[in-house]
Amino acid sequence: MELKENIYAVLFESIQEGLILVDGGGVIVQNNSTSEQMFGYSNGGLVGEKIEVLVPSRTRKEHVNHRDTYHKKPVKRSMGSAMKLNGQRKDGSVFPVEVSLNPFKDDNGDHFVVALVSDVTIRRESQEKLEQMTQSLEQKVKERTAELRESEQLYKSIARNFPGGVISIFDRSFSYLFAEGQGLYELGIETEDLIGINYLERLSSETKEKVKEELEKVFSGEFRNFEVEVDKRAYSLNAVPLLNDNDEIDKILVVEKNITAQREMANKLEQNLIKEKDLNEMKSRFVSMASHEFRTPLTTINSSASLILKYHEKENYDKLDKHVARIKNAVRNLTSILNDFLSLEKLESGKITTTFQEQDLVKLIDEILDEMSGNLKSGQKLINNASSNYTYATDAQLFRNIVINLLSNAIKYSDENDIIEIDIDDQKDFCLISVKDHGIGIPQKDQERMFSRFFRAGNVTNIEGTGLGLNIVERYLELLDGSLSFESKEGEGTTFFIKLPKKQINV
Ligand code: ATP
Ligand code: MG
């Protein structure tokens, strides 16, 4: 054998792939042992066989056609990787192959093809495995994405339905990354309006600083809970830091809740509680005061009654009148204390209602003066200086109580023979009714506290009274949209002014 042929023979045998030399008729002329092992043939068992024996039975026919076509126009080419070619072993079993065809002509011009065949079972398997893995991975990614989208949707709809508030996420510059909640929709704001907007810019200048300070603490890792007021609305804010994959805080979650209604409710409850406490306190003060104040008139009544009895026995009727008058006066005092208390109780519990009706004030005052004349000290005189017809829309009952209170003070705090004058000053939008006396007056230092409940000036300790009258008058006037004021000089006298607005009454 020549050296060249020797080299070929060595190459032929040592090569990893199966090598099969086929002639123009598709008959195997030569092959290496690798190809025999690959296809399960014994040594030399393939030579003389048609190449088709190595092709799976069901594709043999096709293969013959392919081979004919190829033979007419042979080109070097590889097959199998994309085509998924299979080979068939002698025992009929099939396995994946890759084939490359190399045509050539011998010196006689006869056509031959060298087929290089590789068993790609392992490669094909791993390829398929890889494909499967890729597919299942892709499927998983798809599912996960859908899940994420779903959970995102879920969070969004939870946030969107968050009642009476807003759930937001801010970045370090306090710009909105996310915002949802009924609180937004109540204000007519859409999520899209806020994304990218600076949250602090939406706040008033007073609240901005506070909120910024608090939220900066959240960016440094604290959980904060605080309240702010915006446009008379009260909000409670809960803010927590959000960590990124590197465990850094780059966002914060803020839950804002509108607590205006709760706040108002709490305020109302507190006010009611205070009112109730006040009322209770007033009642107990009144009871202790009344038991003290009741003693004097009751003693007077008791002693006058005994004296009446005594004079009656002695048939000394001259002095009876005096004691009857004393008893009457004492009863009047008691009644006035009780009336004060009832008025206050009614005022406190809001039971007093007003009925505005046109009133001829001068006539009304005349009636009151007539009523009060029985209470005058000896020589005292009540004078009504108002003469024209002043018609006013007011509540007659409350007006009467007010004037009676002021007149009884004027009588009580004036001496015998003093005159008490009442007048009306009619102005464009209001009228001033004045009650003027020339009595003991009110010391300057006490004047400020005159309308406080139970307050009595320092110069009246010897005169009976509870210190409730003016407080009641002032509150009655509030109900009439009016007000009370006075001028006084100790030892000279006092003038009280009732200011009443001119009211339109809707009939
Ligand atoms: P009451 O509850 O029985 O009326 P009171 O007269 O003491 O008791 P107010 O009518 O509220 O209570 O008056 C408060 C205080 O104001 C009086 O105690 C008195 O010191 C002072 N005062 C009120 N009216 C006059 C007046 N016309 N002249 C002087 N002092 C007055
Ligand atoms: Mg009084």
What bound compounds does this protein have?
Answer: adenosine-5'-triphosphate, magnesium ion
Estimated radius of gyration: 57 Å
**What is the CATH C-level name of the largest domain?**
Alpha Beta
CATH architecture of the largest domain: 2-Layer Sandwich
Measured distance between first and last alpha carbons = 140 Å
Question: What ranges have pLDDT less than 50 throughout 5 or more consecutive residues?
Answer: none
* Total count of helical runs of at least 4 residues: 13
Helix content: 40-55%
Task: Note down, in words, how this protein is organized.
By secondary structure, this protein is α+β, with helices and mostly antiparallel strands. The protein folds into four domains: 2-119, Beta-Lactamase, CATH 3.30.450; 124-258, PAS domain (Beta-Lactamase, 2-Layer Sandwich), CATH 3.30.450; 269-350, Signal transduction histidine kinase, dimerisation/phosphotransfer (DHp) domain (Helix Hairpins, Orthogonal Bundle), CATH 1.10.287.130; 352-507, 2-Layer Sandwich (Heat Shock Protein 90). It contains 13 helices and 18 strands. The strands form four sheets. Strands 1, 2, 3, 4, 5 and 6 form a six-stranded antiparallel beta sheet that branches. A hairpin with a 4-residue loop joins strand 7 and strand 8. The longest helix has 40 residues, at 121-160. The mean pLDDT is 88. Bound molecules: adenosine-5'-triphosphate and magnesium ion (MG). Adenosine-5'-triphosphate is lined by residues 336, 340, 409-410, 413, 437, 439-442, 450, 456-457, 460, 465-471, 494.
